[in-house]
Amino acid sequence: MSRRALGICLTLGALLCVAGAYALTIGRLTLSAEAVWQGIVGGDPMAERIVRTIRLPRVLTAVLVGYALGASGAIFQSVSRNALGSPDVIGFTTGAASGALVQIVLLDGGRGAVVLSAILGGLATALLVYGLARVHGTVKGYRLVLMGIGVGAVLSAFNGLLLVKGDLDNAVSAALWLAGTTQGRGWLHVVPVAIGLGLLLPVMLLCLKALNVMRLGDDVASQLGIPVERIRRIVTFCAVVLAAVATSAAGPIAFIALIAPQLAARLTRSPNLPLFSGGLVGASLLLGADVIARIQPLSLTVPVGLLTGVSGGLWLLVLLLRGAPR
Predict the structure, then answer these.
(1) Helices (H), the chain
(2) Strand, helix or coil at 317?
(3) In terms of residue numbers, what domain contains 228?
(4) How far apart are CA 127 and CA 25, in angstroms?
(5) In whole angstroms, how far apart are CA 102 and each of 99, 110, 121, 166?
(6) Which of 45, 55, 186, 307 is least enclosed by beta carbons within 10 angstroms?
(7) What are the phi and psi torsion angles at 289 (to 5°)?
(8) Left (φ > 0), alpha (ψ -120 to 50) or beta: where does 30 sit?
(9) Closest alpha carbon to 201 in 275, 260, 141
(10) Are 177 and 111 in contact (CB under 8 A)?
(11) How many domains does the chain have?
(12) Which of 202, 193, 258 is nearest to 62 (CA)?
């Protein structure tokens, strides 16, 4: 890692700490820094309940989900070699949402069942898109993106059908979840994402050197002795599971996986895959959007997914107008 990249990562980590500490103080009941500290270490029962039960899990959910989406987006954009190759654009998060919606709307499953169904839905979608994009034993980036967009459109329609056909209470709950939100998140939402990052991030780090070489082209990587297809399958599996676990925790958060790796690459100015920096940018974006959603002056309950959708849509328009994705 270059000095600039290291400095950017440390700065983003510091910003996350400051924003997280501030997020613990805001809400319907404003807490002082001393009250937040008492709530964390114990001593004030009311502050302890607010901080430990409500606000700290929400902050950690935003940070971990944002990091998982940023890292997942960096892997997908590297594998597809396309600026639009993020899990939300090519339908993987939509597939994870479909799996979770089946449990929420039709089966009324518990938290564990929703997580498992989201992972299975994301993996099934990834296998379908990967299979459709495979031609003569290889996967072309543009074909992966196009197939993913088509499969994602079909799954979006399927999700809408589930909302119409399901029980009214479950459908309302699912519709709120589909907007993408960190509100009301508890430790049961934090733990699966933390476990997913703890298990899969080391695997992706082991493949990072090979991925950096693969960015020069499959032929060059193969000549250097890198098993291109095996590495691609391993990191794709890890990225799909990360995106699915993140989706199960906070719903389908739009465009974080698309924006974060590209912002990280521009900030660090490094030719290497922005795995660490992309995750930190994703965590910063999602936590920042969550803070803005809470302090916005209209006193409305704004799902964080709407804010990221608006900002991500503008970013996508800029990319298209500049002709970045090719």
Answers:
(1) 3-23, 33-41, 45-48, 56-80, 92-101, 111-133, 141-165, 168-178, 187-206, 208-214, 218-223, 228-250, 256-268, 275-295, 304-322
(2) helix
(3) 3-322
(4) 43
(5) 5, 12, 10, 9
(6) 45
(7) -65, -35
(8) beta
(9) 275
(10) no
(11) 1
(12) 193
Cα radius of gyration (the chain): 20
Tens of pLDDT along the chain (326 residues) come to: 778 888 888 999 999 999 988 988 887 777 788 888 887 877 777 877 888 888 889 899 989 999 999 888 888 888 877 777 777 777 778 888 888 888 877 777 676 777 788 888 888 887 888 777 776 666 666 677 778 888 888 888 888 787 777 666 677 777 777 777 888 788 888 888 899 899 999 998 888 888 888 877 777 877 878 887 788 888 888 888 888 888 888 888 878 888 888 888 888 888 888 888 888 998 998 898 888 888 877 666 677 877 787 777 777 777 667 654 44
Closest by CA to 144, choosing from 80, 87, 215, is 80
